[in-house]
Specification:
The chain is α/β, with parallel strands linked by helices. The chain is 44% helix and 14% strand. The N and C termini lie far apart (66 Å).
Length: 618
């Protein structure tokens, strides 16, 4: 009898965690490699679950794809590992249980990197290996990213008529991480051809059951549930799960009463849990109809708009000047605030505050932005790097920024720690700058990454960085277009040091509607120029500019004047093509950016209305 035919007649019991048992046996490495090196260990786990009453076991192939195996240098062993996994499971199960080929999510929990093309290629390779091995069906499990799951489901459905199980994972009961309700996700998966649809991982029985209460029995597909045994406890460097099999036995009845036809276990579950599930459904027939609890929709109040224009709104309508002023590396903030006040008096539109620039610790830019806004009445563009905070910290940081009334953010990757004061420090990079932009946009909808309501919509305008100091500006523009596609509202460029480069950038970005702040940084010495050219990532100076600064090496005052002269020449060209001017203050020398701000305003005031209208607004 086929797997689907069996599900028509009775409730089936799946197996439990493979990794949990192997881990408890003292194995702490790539579990999928054991298919080759210790097949008897894998078979022992399968047999334990079969003896406990499992009707269906899954192959030891959760992470047996090219992308995940490459972490262990095993990317060339995809075929062998998957083929052996099917053989081991088949020989152990015999004719007593169904064997499904498991393919886990590649993105995992949260926003993650990885190109769709690479994921598709990696998935297809593993899929073909499992199908050739002779499985009874496929299990696609632990997919937090619904788009990823639907992508691989479409591929699998095109390649096979075997039963396909699709299990999504949730941070919050009843809602996926992008805010999609579980019932909508199940309906979408059923429409795409999934035969068995449900949830696994992250949640224990209690919260998983809560999520299923508002799920109607699908029209064609069957429901599945693979809860964790509990939330894990971290003790002595190990993750430990509570083991309460009796608790699982009680919940087996509850899962059946929500229409579940396939019940198994995920992280922390053992053969004892599976035996308890089998005992809990003994003598029960599948549920045909159920009363569905009314689901709670995510409700988020509309944004209460704050007074004043954001920097994004200003640069769309008029000439706008923003100035980067680094927060200090020490606790003496006097000069910083002197600079902020001086720049406010000269009429700039806002400060931009880097997030530990060049990977060196500075006074928190969020704190300084709040103080500048409150005490000087000067808005700030706050930089956020992917380097220093994990997904938890990033979301907490965004909530804090919103609470402080900060509305302009620059989402950037961040300089690597190796170039900073602490080269051995850990770089987090849970997300890329693209995904950080996407995360901020989701906050603007009032939804956290886990899908939970924030109970308010944030109203951030997102700037993105653009580095034109490359050989192929076209490729840099393609990257910029991708960032805008992810949700960036406007653009802030790295400093440019040639008039030709400014014109090249204007021409290359003329099709981009997002406003652009073009970067200008006054040089202060030949050593400064050479350092920027040779040591700072993303910055290159033309030979003639370096030569002009070298000619002033004997006179610091002359060097400052030459640096200002070069900056003004660049500003002249920039003002012909861009509405936004982004001045970077070198070494807290705010007197230089004050002078350049005055120069821009004086020059702007001399322009006729006709000349202003002819400027290409970027």
């Amino acid at each position: 009898m086929t797997l689907l035919a069996s599900l028509q007649e009775r409730i089936l019991i799946g197996d439990g965690a493979m990794g949990t048992l192997l881990y408890s046996h003292g194995i702490d490495r790539c579990f999928e490699e054991l298919n080759l090196t210790h097949p008897e260990e894998v078979a022992r786990v399968h047999k334990a679950y079969l003896d406990a009453g499992a009707d269906l076991i899954q192959t030891n192939t959760y992470g047996a794809n090219y992308i995940k195996l490459s972490r262990y240098g095993l990317e060339e062993s995809v075929k062998r590992i998957n083929s052996e996994a099917v053989r081991i499971a088949r020989e152990t199960a015999g004719d007593n249980a169904y064997v499904v080929g498991t393919i886990g999510g590649i993105h995992g929990s949260g926003l993650r990197f990885g190109k769709t093309v690479e994921i598709k290629r990696s998935f297809r390779e593993q899929l073909y290996c499992l199908l050739l091995g002779g499985v009874d069906g496929l299990l696609l499990e632990t997919y937090y990213d619904l788009d990823e799951l639907t992508t691989v489901l479409k591929i699998a459905r095109e390649e096979t008529d075997l039963p396909i199980i699709t299990n999504v994972s949730m941070h919050e009961p009843g809602v996926l991480e992008n805010g999609i309700h579980l019932s909508d996700a199940i309906e979408r998966l059923e429409d795409l051809g999934a035969d068995i649809i449900g949830v696994n991982c992250r949640l224990g029985p209690y919260h998983m059951l809560k999520a299923l209460e508002s799920i109607p029995i699908p029209k064609k597909a069957f429901l599945s549930a693979y809860p964790n045994s509990s939330s894990p406890e971290y003790r002595d460097g190990k993750l430990l799960y509570k083991t309460e099999p009796d608790y699982f036995e009680k919940f087996a009845l509850h899962f059946r009463n929500e229409g579940v036809r396939l019940i198994g276990g995920c992280c922390g579950t053992t053969p004892e849990h599976i035996k308890a599930l089998a005992e809990g459904i003994k003598g029960l027939i599948p549920l045909q109809k159920k009363e569905v609890k009314k689901r709670k929709n995510i409700e988020v109040p509309e944004i209460k708009q704050q007074d004043g224009l954001t920097l994004f709104e200003k640069v769309k309508s008029k000439r706008s000047i923003i100035v980067e002023l680094d927060t200090p590396k020490h606790l003496d903030t006097k000069k910083f605030f002197e600079g902020a006040k001086a720049l406010k008096e000269v009429g700039i539109d806002g400060l931009t505050l880097a997030d530990n620039s060049l990977a060196s610790p500075r006074v928190c830019n969020m704190t300084m932005a709040s103080l500048v806004n409150r005490e000087i009445d000067l808005p700030a563009l706050v930089h956020i790097t992917c380097r220093d905070r994990n997904l938890i910290g990033l979301q907490s940081h965004l909530m804090g920024l919103h609470t402080l009334g900060i509305r302009d953010l620059l989402a950037i990757t961040g300089d690597p720690t190796k170039i900073g004061d602490f080269p051995g420090a850990t770089s987090v990079y849970d997300v890329t700058s693209f995904e950080l932009i996407k995360l901020i946009k989701q906050f603007n909808e009032g939804i956290s990454l886990s899908g939970k309501s924030l109970k308010q919509k944030t109203n951030f305008h997102i700037a993105t960085a653009f580095n034109p100091n490359v050989r192929n500006v076209g490729r840099a523009v393609e990257r910029l277009e991708k960032k805008i596609g992810f949700g960036a509202d406007y653009v802030v460029s790295q400093p440019v040091f040639s008039r030709e480069k400014i014109i090249e950038v204007a021409e290359a970005t003329k099709h981009i509607t997002a406003p652009i702040y073009i970067g200008i940084m006054p040089l202060v010495s030949t050593r400064n120029a050479e350092y920027l050219h040779n040591e700072v990532p993303g910055i290159k100076l033309p030979d003639d500019i370096r030569a002009r600064m070298a000619a002033t090496s004997d006179s610091p005052d002359l060097a400052i004047q030459e640096g200002l002269s070069i900056a003004k020449e660049l500003i002249d060209t920039a003002m012909e093509h861009f509405n936004g001017i982004y001045l970077i203050t070198p070494f807290i020398r705010y007197d230089l950016t004050v002078e350049l701000s005055k120069y821009i305003q004086q020059k702007d005031n001399k322009l006729t209305e006709k000349e202003k209208s002819e400027i290409v607004i970027k």
